Automatic annotation (TrEMBL), chain A:
It holds the Pfam family BPD_transp_1. The chain crosses the membrane at residues 21-42, 87-106, 118-138, 166-191, 212-237, 277-297. This is Carbohydrate ABC transporter membrane protein 1, CUT1 family. InterPro entries: ABC_transporter_permease, MetI-like, MetI-like_sf.
TrEMBL record, chain B:
Pfam families: SBP_bac_1 (PF01547). GO terms for cellular component: cell envelope. It comes from the Bacteria. Belongs to the bacterial solute-binding protein 1 family. Gene3D superfamilies: Periplasmic binding protein-like II. Keywords: Signal, Transport. InterPro entries: Bact_solute-bd_prot1 (IPR050490), SBP (IPR006059). Residues 1-21 form the signal peptide. It is found in: Cell envelope. It comes from Glycomyces sambucus. This is Carbohydrate ABC transporter substrate-binding protein, CUT1 family.
Length: 307, 415
């Protein structure tokens, strides 16, 4: 309190003729706040309200309380979609350790490090639809590059994106590849923050590369790994575009067994005109993402090291 | 230098904003702009020709043709209509139509139709049936499509099989498909996907069955309808068709164009694409669908419809009548893009592709059946592959799959 009481004269001088009015502060954040409110907050509130309504294709809906939510509980498609999103998220999480190892390897390269970063980052800045189209060709069961490569080593090919046994894994592989670039940037930044003296000192004490990685790199990188993990889970649970472009062909029977939660939302709300039901799916997804993120923040105490 | 460039850009931006403001103003004797949303790049030139012809007759009206990508077309339109920013004129399909027509989203153009003296008998009756409403006219058909057999003459010649013709029965089709199949060469006799419009709906009606009965309930489990489904599942069981997986990796039309399948039962709407490829043009023939208990072909057609929330209802109604009228129909026919709906304007379409016997599709109007529509058609047609794929894959009998699908359709219709 005393410290604050001592401050005002200085602050008044700095603020100049504008005065100390708190309104000025609000005015400064207004553009960002109005934008966020109009683009995120308002749609969210509308969605939340709609999730308690029975909505016709057009026009206002009628309040039906929790009907949409109880409908979800008994909807096998909903649980299937959740399971598929879970599997997809699990696959993408496998990409995190791979990204850590890759980032550490790239860090070891003294010349041309940027070239590797660019190569891994390219998929991130490429249009997802274009990427998905190319992967469809690669996965094609009859003429695809992947089956051709497998045939060279005597492995029988599959209809990767036309068979629901494989489709979600095939998509997961593309998802890992597409998210690798961003993960490498975050992890790369984390690696550069580790003081090189630690490696020098440990080398003198006789630590090898593997030991250094496990005892120095991993603990000190753990905040970055945590960030990457949280972001991966959030974005994986929201995956839509890969299913939309890679599985939605004329009559792909693999689509039924591979719909993700956001795809189901799209289908209910925008193909079948049932926006209330779609809104309920979106709200449940929001809750799941919040819970998953909270849980991770809880668990981080056990493994994330902040110095 | 950099500053002046930025200044120029800002000026340009401001200028374009003014232009936009001027365009969206409209009303009081000023120029009116109508937007016309479509989903076909192939048809864009024809649609622009129609817009230009209309602008010539109405110098104060500007028609802007927009091509939206097909996967997003319906969600864009629905969100636009709900948010009151839908395009003025747009293409409408029969399975989407009830949701719009019965919820006050479409402009009633009956006055304009009457004052222009449009003869409604000029449009195919079975297409009009799809869009009929007692008290209003929500647009007029722009085109229609019926089905036939697209076949590869070279593959028929190589296998020594006679070309399909109007004497063909189901048995002929099945036998030919078997004879044409050559696994070593990677050639199949026919493409048998789960395709309602070009495939199993046709055979259901050819067998005397129905998809939706007169009582408004699903009728796809009747013995006749099951026979219609079996026509296709037998082709799969015979090994005369690529599997469903192969057909979802590579579309049937692509397989046909690549010379991998000898027959593709589908719509007149492929004509322009098949004709556009010279190698395909030389080897492609057309024949009527084979005869079951009777002849039948699905018919569908695009409706030129308008948004009820438009700022310019009168001009819009006038444009819609024009876009489905005789002059516009001839423009479409000449482009070869589609078979126009207006009676007597089909000749230029036939003449545009003389190597193809396209008369088959015009003749099919006589025995055509409107695409079955009931309730939330988008929802129950979306369940089709889930329930029918087991029959196509040979894991379930056609009768069992049809019974399960029938129950699922009724469940949606009961909602």
């Amino acid at each position: 309190m005393t410290a604050r009481a001592a401050r005002p004269p200085a602050r008044r001088r700095r603020a100049g003729g504008l005065g100390p009015s708190p309104l000025w502060g609000y005015a400064m954040i207004a553009p960002a706040f109005i934008g966020l409110a109009a683009l995120y907050l308002w749609p969210f509130l509308k969605t939340f309200a709609k999730s308690f309504m029975d909505t016709p294709a057009f026009g206002p809906g009628t309040w039906t309380g929790l009907d949409n939510y109880t409908g979800l509980l008994g909807d096998g498609d909903f649980w299937d979609a959740f399971a598929n999103s879970g599997v997809y998220t699990g696959i993408l999480l496998l990409g995190v350790p791979a990204a850590v190892v890759l980032a550490a390897m790239i860090q070891q390269i003294s010349r041309g490090r940027a070239v590797y970063r660019v190569l891994f980052f390219l998929p991130v800045v490429t249009l997802p639809v274009a990427v998905s189209m190319v992967w469809r060709f690669i996965y094609n069961g009859d003429f695809g590059l992947l089956n051709w490569a497998l045939s060279l080593v005597g492995v029988p090919g599959q209809y990767w994106v036309a068979d629901d046994t494989y489709a979600i894994y095939a998509i997961g592989a593309v998802g890992i590849w597409m998210s690798l670039g961003v993960n490498l940037i975050i992890l790369g930044a984390g690696l550069q923050a580790i003081p090189p003296e630690l490696y020098e000192a440990s080398a003198m004490d006789g630590a090898g590369r593997v030991r250094q990685f496990l005892r120095i790199t991993l603990p000190l990188l753990s905040p970055s790994v945590f960030l990457v993990t949280v972001l991966t889970v959030i974005s994986a649970l929201q995956m839509f575009d890969l299913v939309f472009v890679m599985l939605r062909s004329v009559d792909n029977t693999a689509l039924d067994g591979s719909k993700t939660i956001v795809y189901l939302f799209y289908e209910k709300a925008f193909v079948q005109f049932d926006q209330g039901y779609g809104a309920a799916i979106a709200v449940v997804l929001l809750l799941v993402i919040m819970l998953a993120t909270l849980l991770q923040f809880r668990l981080q105490r056990r493994w994330v090291f902040y110095d | 230098m950099r500053h002046s460039k930025r200044g120029a850009a800002a000026a340009a931006l401001a200028a374009s904003a003014l232009v936009l403001a001027a365009c969206s103003g409209g009303g009081d004797g000023e120029d009116v702009t109508l937007t016309y949303a479509t989903w076909s790049d192939d048809q864009k030139p024809a649609m622009e020709a129609i817009a230009a012809a209309f602008e010539e007759a109405h110098p104060d009206i500007d028609v802007e043709v927009q091509v939206l990508p097909w996967p997003e077309y319906w969600s864009t339109l629905q969100v636009g209509a709900a948010g009151r920013t839908a395009p003025d004129a747009f293409w409408m399909l029969a399975d989407q139509y009830p949701a719009y027509a019965d919820n006050g989203q479409l402009l009633d153009i009956s006055d304009a139709v009457e004052s222009a003296g449009v003869d409604l008998a000029a449009y195919p009756e079975s297409v009009m049936d799809l869009y009929e409403r007692d008290d209003a006219v929500y647009g007029l058909p722009k085109d229609y499509d019926t089905n036939g057999i697209w076949f590869n003459k070279a593959l028929f010649d190589a296998a020594g099989v006679a070309y399909p013709d109007d004497t063909w029965t189901w048995d002929d089709a099945r036998a030919a498909a078997q004879q044409l199949t050559d696994p070593d060469a990677g050639v199949w006799g026919i493409a048998a996907p789960i395709d309602r419009q070009g495939g199993y709906y046709n055979s259901i009606y050819q067998a005397g069955g129905e998809v939706i009965g007169d009582d408004g309930q699903a009728a796809i489990d009747s013995p006749e309808a099951v026979a219609g489904i079996e026509f296709w599942t037998q082709m799969q069981a015979d090994g005369s068709s690529p599997t469903l997986q192969q057909l979802s990796d590579t579309e049937a039309v692509q397989m046909f164009m690549d010379g991998k399948v000898a027959m593709y039962f589908s719509g007149s709407f492929w004509a322009q694409r098949l004709y556009g490829d010279e190698a395909v043009r030389a080897t492609t023939g057309v024949a009527p669908l084979p005869m079951g208990e009777q002849r039948a072909s699905m018919i569908s057609g695009i409706l030129n419809a308008g948004y009820a929330g438009t700022e310019h209802p009168e001009e819009l109604a006038e444009f819609l009548v024009f876009a489905s009228g005789e002059e516009a129909a001839v423009l479409q026919a000449e482009s070869g893009a589609v078979l126009p709906a207006y009676a007597g304007t089909q000749q230029p379409w036939l003449d545009a592709m003389p190597e193809f016997d396209l008369q088959v599709f015009v003749d099919a109007v006589d025995y055509s059946v409107p695409l079955p529509i009931a309730g939330n058609a988008a929802e129950w047609t979306g369940l089709e592959s889930e329930y029918l794929a087991p029959a196509w894959n040979g894991e379930q009998s056609a009768a069992d799959a049809a019974a399960a699908y029938n129950a699922a359709i009724d469940e949606v219709l009961a909602e």
